[in-house]
Design goal:
The structure is a homotetramer. The first copy, chain A, is an all-alpha fold. Chain A is built from 12 helices and no strands. Helix content of chain A is 76%, strand content 0%. Chain A is elongated, with a radius of gyration of 20 Å. The structure holds a DNA duplex.
DNA sequence: GATGAATGAGGATTCATTCAT
DNA sequence: TATGAATGAATCCTCATTCAT
């Protein structure tokens, strides 16, 4: 965690440092990311950095918690109707996840990097790994008890599927729609009817595939 | 490409260098990977390395071609029955891909890293990026003309789904089965009935989801 | 240009670094000059060097500007009587040039090296190459219009002669007088009557040779 | 000196090695010249080089002796009429020198480099330094006894003048005439009337300047 | 609290030279 | 005699971190 001195900084300066650090860690691997570049761009002294943060890893961990908090807040800010069905909930959740990815691409990128590298601080490792997974698993189990999802679907596997597909779908859509429609910022791209169509199709495929007609028996 | 001197090396020494380099580049980003560490572990002089390879990038590119060759050979070694249906073919292809990933995890890892970083040599870039995607897309279109896949499924999107799911599935299975069954080498893990069951389930979900009953009309 | 940090250094340390760098670049070609040797002799860490200078070339360019400034200041500090004749002016200029060369042999040496190698920063290249040459050419043309120099003398060729002879004369005198009189520092050597005699003789030879009696017609 | 093995080499191979070495040492300082590059271009093994030559310096010294021999032979091959006057002789000598420089630019270049660097093998140092100088000095003294050169001209200084001017004149002419007339090989450039004119002018200036009218008394 | 100079290990790469085959 | 692999010191440069001011 950053030292107190960091939080005593004027808002604007603190934000500038964070933004530059985000850019650096989003573009480079942990090892390749350079504190020197950050402080140079931020216009602060090398020594100052070490009065704000314990060390390089401290900064990195902080950015990750920022990401986690931002995502939590993002999800919490427009909560779904608690009475909706399982797939409606998954739809909401997935869409929110992709929206977050497009709204805060740097934060997302850093998170993905960290997960891939497997070098997360142990607590976040658990959270990141199981976090989403656990959540999806509960969702699937609940869907099964409601009859929305076939009972012989492996909950953990289903969670893996949701997790995997929706964490890559954002980048895929971004890429594809930019190719088709020229440059545009991520947020607005997703409001396109075309994006809507593709997103729905993915959901429908998964929904139909996991539907009550068990694939085991349906063959 | 490595210099002649490298290929003149005694088999054992050459393999040792390759193995250590694989480990280094599998564990670290291109920038973070260290030639110094490799030569230290290989017990060769720094200068010797530069008699085998042009430079760091030369080594990296060589490892990538090794990966490409190994995978091509792997897929070619047990070719499928050419008369099989679309999904049967996809099943074979996916299973072979996952088997390769488990049999040669380091080679796979390096390939994934390279794709993500977007810094592949242009020829491989095309092959890696569109390669799999193009291939899946053709497969999907063929499936649609045969009536195996609903006609309103977006072929490119379907290709994305297959690509994404199956390139992550190997790691997922490995993780999960190791947790359940204790350490074991990747190859044998996949021959477990449990692995078979999970793999089939994923395939069935996708197959059923993309089946002829159009999701658009089924709602 | 050196970074600010370099100019913030204590005078003595800064000068020590400059002196050692001068010696290194005066004795060795650009490529052969070694930053490692400089920092070792200066007793500073290698990393420190790169907080003072951008890189090797930055240091080299700085030494060249030091030379240019020193020479300009040297020439400007005892300016000639503006009313003097052409050859008197050339005499003053040449003498000042040689004096500078003897007073600051290392600076001069580095400059000569750079001119020969042809690898000067473009601005200095122009200045150094044409600089002296252009200047001498103007002088010669002016001398011709005054009638001090034969009109059929090729101005550019005359400039070449002055340039060549006077840029080597310093080293020649230094060598010769040291052999005759034992070690002594350059500055005082030139105040010798013997140096005076030799210097005058060269000037007289060129003056008489370029005099109004055209060599073409005098033969 | 090269080892016997070198002289046992087939003529063609030996010459190829020499030519490439000449190019390398002509273009680079002694330190910057690279044995590795030479053997790579020559297509011989690194180890072979060390069976031909003691080491880098051995090769370098050999190239210098080749240059000395070539120049001696060049001058000796079209010897002047022994009865000619002092300046006619100097004219012949200078012209021959420049012709050699244009005919064998690499050999000349290496020689100049070596003289400048001051790092000649002691014997050649003496030869190179005094060599030409001694020769010119004798010539001047002879000219004085004949009455062609003013008696109070310092012979050593005159020798310096000839030496300096004529060792730079070749490069100057080459540069200038190429600028004026477009690319052309050195040899033919010197046969231009323009080259003739400029060369004569330099000679006339020095001749007139050193003529019997003593500069000391002419003031 | 802020500064920025100092540090030295580590990065990739090139080099001349040796020596076993 | 020819080879070419092996070597390790040297090159320039970047880095995260410390500490005196």
């Amino acid at each position: 965690m950053p030292k107190e001195t960091f939080f005593n900084l004027p808002e604007e300066k603190r934000q500038r440092i964070i933004d530059l650090a985000l850019a650096e860690f989003a573009e480079n691997d942990y090892d390749a990311a350079s504190i020197s570049r950050i402080v140079a761009q931020a216009g602060i002294a090398k020594g100052s950095f070490y009065q704000y943060f314990e060390n390089k890893e401290d900064l990195h961990a902080y950015l990750l918690t920022l990401g986690a908090e931002a995502k939590a807040q993002f999800l919490g800010s427009n909560p779904p109707d608690p009475a909706m069905g399982t797939f409606a909930y998954i739809r909401w959740l997935s869409q929110a996840g992709i929206e977050f990815e497009l709204a805060r691409p740097l934060l997302s990128q850093i998170g993905y990097r960290a997960i891939r590298s497997g070098a997360l601080p142990p607590d976040m490792q658990a959270q990141a790994k199981s976090g989403a997974a656990d959540f999806f698993r509960q969702l699937v189990q609940q869907g099964q008890s409601r009859g929305d999802i076939a009972p012989d679907i492996d909950p953990d596997l289903a969670a893996f599927l949701f997790n995997t597909v929706f964490s890559e779908l954002g980048a895929y859509l971004l890429n594809r729609l930019q190719d088709e429609a020229g440059l545009a910022d991520g947020r607005s791209l997703l409001e396109t009817p075309e994006a809507e169509r593709l997103f729905n199709q993915v959901l429908h495929i998964l929904e139909a595939g996991m539907g009550t007609i068990s694939p085991e028996t349906s063959q």
